[in-house]
Amino acid sequence: MSKTDYQSNLSPATSDEAVLLNEIHSKKKKKDLPLKIALCIFFSILFVLIMLPFYAVTLAAFKPGEDLIRYGLNLKFDLNVMSFDNFIFLFTGDHAYFTWFRNSLLLTIVQVTLTLLVSAFVAYGFAAYEFKGKNFLFICVLLIMMVPFEILLLPLYTLIYDLGLMNTYSAIILPGIANAGTIFFFRQYLRGIPKAIIDSGRVDGATEYGIFFRLVLPVMKPSFAAMAILNGMNSWNNLLWPFMVLGDGDKFTLPIGLKTLLTPYGNNYDLLIVGSFFAILPIFILFLCFQKYFIDGMTAGAVKG
Amino acid sequence: MNKLKKVLNSQKVAPYVFVLPFIFVFLIFWLYPLANSFIMSFQERLLGQAPKWKGFDNYTKLLTDKVFLKAVENSVVYMVWTLILLIPFPMIFACLINSKLMWGREFFKSAFFLPALTSVVVAGTIFRLIFGEMPGSLMNSILSHFGMGPFKYLKDQTLSRIALLTLACWRWTGVNMLYFLSGLKGIDQEYYEAAAIDGASSLQAFKSITMPLLKPTTIYVVTISIYAGLAMFTESFMLFNGNNSPKNIGLTIVGYLYRQGIEKNKLGYAATVGIVLLVVAMTINLIQLALTGMFKKEES
User: In a designed cystine with A186, which of A123, A288, A295, B62 is the match (CB 3.0 to 4.6 A)?
Assistant: First the structure.
């Protein structure tokens, strides 16, 4: 359809072609409007389908949990049963939601900061130097990216047990602190940075590490944003591994906490939906502010190839 | 002290200091567990107890283990369907949304991306309730308009697969679309102009320009989809509210690994499941890469 369109500011090679292209273009234009409308309708339908679950959750956040147990998630807009009770319960009720929220926030911030710093440090080693064993080590980075993490679940679990790290946040942070995907991304990014920066640092008498921390790190900001979002989302949303190593209710993260609410006892369902709602909200707000970096981070993989 | 500083700062030693954290993590949290997993797969092992050597017993037992074969079937069927649903459609959507005729491109792009921001826990919870068995649940109330249902989605093999795939499509269509969009950005518009001059139809242009030039992106998306599909666990864990689905209709390979290793504490047997998963995932991907000519390209 549209693929035959061309950018009008591009000047075609010969005048014959230009005439031909203009002809094609004007012919197209007449057919354009119905196509435009069709496209718009098609994507609007898709939009409605994709938004449906969000709409249903938002509605459910205003309904009593009992309603949810009895009727499931639905689109009934009924002002008689809808109220702010769940929100009031969320903020004033007796539950651990904000402990989980605080734990998740803290863990995400610490984990992302450490992972990015360590990974950038390593990536700089790969990007700025030639040294013996470099290629071999870089193949190791690629190997880690190629093996699904789930395979290591059990041996890692026994290792954490043997190290006495069960029930600690270190068990979650340490295994991924030099994250292979992040190292790879940073290395690609660093290869584009002029060597002159490093040389000028050496001339000024800075140490190798001073060059990294004072001259290179500041230049890496845009790539940091993308990786912060990718790692931050993974950390904020991660369930399986934290669920395995954290046994103590006080240390639960938000995903673990929400998971425990999925049994319809007591006030659980009152909290479940409004709690899910509040788990998505901060990410949505961040997304609206930093859309470009979200998209760069989430599609970082595609540049790998 | 000063001498040490000088050595550490030399350009010969510094690179090793930089990559040292990676070497540590690689050895301790990757190579050691992987090697251990391989060793454990030949043992009978309980957490905190001395292991017993079992040879190939775990492997022979596993290959005739009906529950494991069921888990493999579930994972493979899920993976194949995600390939069918989450490659061609996002590719077509990306081409359509990229067209000059599209209104509100940025808006739709962002909107389709929103589901990917929700965690599996939240998304799984939402879809568990949407596919609830009560007549009033969203899915049942929609189908009742067409005179169907109500269904008990999460107690039926086919219906629960549809529920899982709906969840996967909801979360990943937007992300895969973005992958293809970033691939489309790299295609020179002049190809399309040339095609237009030659009188090629849009469909022909799509087939002979867009598809071949999107191949690297497609290969990448297929590769990660194969891994993600075979290693899927949390989606099913949330949808069925635990690892025990009726007649194991929702059990996946990783789910079985989790059941044997964590729930039953049979670490050796569970490690075998992990090794088999690794071999299956690697084999399928190598075949895929060979078929798509990924290796040939590197040679030439």
Answer: A123
Q: Is A263 left (phi over 0), alpha (psi -120 to 50) or beta?
A: beta
- B-contacting residues in A 12-71 (Cβ below 8 Å): 12, 17, 20-21, 24, 32, 35-36, 39-40, 42-43, 46-47, 50-54, 56-57, 60, 68, 70-71
* DSSP conformation letters of A94-118: SSSHHHHHHHHHHHHHHHHHHHHHH
Considering the entire predicted model, what is its pTM? 0.86
pLDDT (mean) for A193-210: 86
Interchain pair B47, A305: CB under 8 A: no
Binned at pLDDT 50, 70 and 90, residue B188 comes out as confident
Which chain B residue's Cα is nearest to A289? B110
The residue written with tokens 């602190």 in the block is A177
Q: How many residues does chain B have?
A: 300
Question: With 0-12 CB in 10 A as exposed, 13-18 as middle and 19+ as buried, what is B281?
Answer: buried
**Does B220 contact A302 at a Cβ distance shorter than 8 Å?**
yes
pLDDT top residue among A226 and A296:
A226
Q: pLDDT by residue (tens digit) across A256-298? A: 998 888 876 766 888 888 888 888 888 888 888 888 888 777 7
Mean pLDDT of B42-54: 81
Task: Give me the pLDDT at residue A29, please.
Answer: 62
Q: Which of A290, A294, A270 lies closest to A88, judged by CA? A: A270
**ipTM, 2 decimals?**
0.85
Please check whether residue B182 is in contact with residue A302, taking contact to mean a CB–CB distance below 8 angstroms. Answer: yes
The dihedral through the CA atoms of A280, A285, A287, A293 has a sign that is negative
Around A15, how many Cα atoms within 13 Å sit in the side-chain half-sphere?
0
